[in-house]
Amino acid sequence: MRTYVARRVLMLIPVLLGVSVLVFLLLHLAPGNPALLIAGADAPPETVARIERQLGLDQPLYVQYWRYLSGVLRGDLGRSLRSRVPVSEEIRRTFGVTLQLTVVGVTLSALGGIPLGVTSAVHQNSIVDNITMFTALLGISMPVFAVGLILMWVFGLNLGWFPISGFKPLTTVEGWRHIVLPAITVSLASVATLARLTRSSMLEVLRQDYVRTSRAKGLGERKVIYRHALKNALLPVITVVGLQFGYLLGGAVVTETIFSIPGMGRLSVSAIGMRDFPIVQGTVLVIAVVFVLVNLLVDLLYALIDPRIRYK
Amino acid sequence: MAADMPRPKSGVNALWKRLKRNKGAVFGLLLVLLLVCVAVLAPVISPYDPYAQKVANRFKPPSSEHLMGTDELGRDILSRIIWGTRISLLNGLVAVLIAMTLGVSVGLLAGYYPALDNLIMRVADILMALPGILLAIAIVAALGPGLANVMIAVGISSVPPFVRITRASVLSIREHEYIEAARAVGARDSQIVSSHVLPNCVAPILVYSTLRLSTVILSTAILSFLGLGAQPPTPEWGAMVSIARAYLRIAPHTAFFPILAIFITVLAFNFVGDGLRDALDPRLKV
Q: What residues does each domain of chain A span?
């Protein structure tokens, strides 16, 4: 197990370096002079020159990248072009909010999706199964913003059960009331995805010989399903829960915009509108790193549960 | 549909046979056909000019005159939805074609030349280290907002899965004896790839393209909703919802109909994609 962990952690380095190159190049993907783009087409040449100097755009590309990377490694993500506040500070202020929303969302999708999938598989082709799978297909066909607006309209504007904007820390009751609608919004598609996946994984396992054996030796159906089948069916599901974490981080960008939640997603969207590149780069980098780390954790967990993985 | 086509390759033919038996897929296919008709016939069937404003007539609820009501500038929502069908389908198609062309070429290289495989797959890993929609957002951030840039961004962010699927098919095809035979009679690599390898990966690529269409249409709508894609007054569904959001309290119908349009379109492609996937291989999961 130790060698496996070491190998996986080492494999992380090229991926993270690659992500940093990608994020660095974002600024240079843009056609034309990035400084001119940031300053606006009718900016005086002095402003353009200042931005060029500030971003080090007058240096060769590899020098720029090296500077960027060494800055990032020291926790220096540059400064916002508009507010002049260090990007790392803006991210520190908003990261926790996004993380709370995402964690609540992932929990909700696992708690909703997995039992739905198991129930569907156990009662394959029954009415329950058909309804669940049809609803799941509807769920993955809804854009995040549509889910958000519909929930907002029904439960916020009409019924008045939950607040429709803002964020309060989750240590308070108010905090939980605020996060209900955004969390459902961000997790609905994941619930559907996990239900579909759990169902097909479970169906696959239920066909295995060891399930037949445990039935043959007279175990109760409940024990067969929960003790023998579910454990094995959940293996692929765990990986996908990790992937869902990433989708939810992406979905959080939209959800935060809809519900006016002061998180990293809203920060990055408004930064794109203002062409505030350092903020965009910083938020994208942080989300990518979190996503990569979560997937690493999931893979390690997977190896811990299933020893076969370690010896591959 | 199959009757007018030149005789398809056997793999695709078998796929079509199995697809016909799937009720959901046939339903989805009919829906897609309907949407294509709406998109093509937009100038004929749309009752009003989608851009014509009549401010005195704003926020009218659905009526016999305006079946879906009017929006914040008194424009006919039905006409805007009809024209929006064109934009969404075209967008989705272009983005998937971009992703497919790039992804399949790179995937063929990776699968056929082991020397390139490692490098290409590591780059794909890096691109996949970002959640798809975020990668698209990042690319639009760089290119600047606009519908064309959204198509490019969504297309590029969909490349890695195409690379993976193509590569996986090529890897299994490469081991077959007919490839060895082709090589033995002295066929060039380019010949082998184009006439022996590629035709045999068509089925999985086709299935994935359909599944991807729904994702791509969703992503485009999301980016437009965030104000990064189509700009007003373009009748793009995501952009329409984005504006309607401000009037959710007084005129929910202005948001409801574009949402319904996106939903039906994505659902249609999901039905077809699911059906195709089951027809190809019930175990294939991407």
A: 98-305
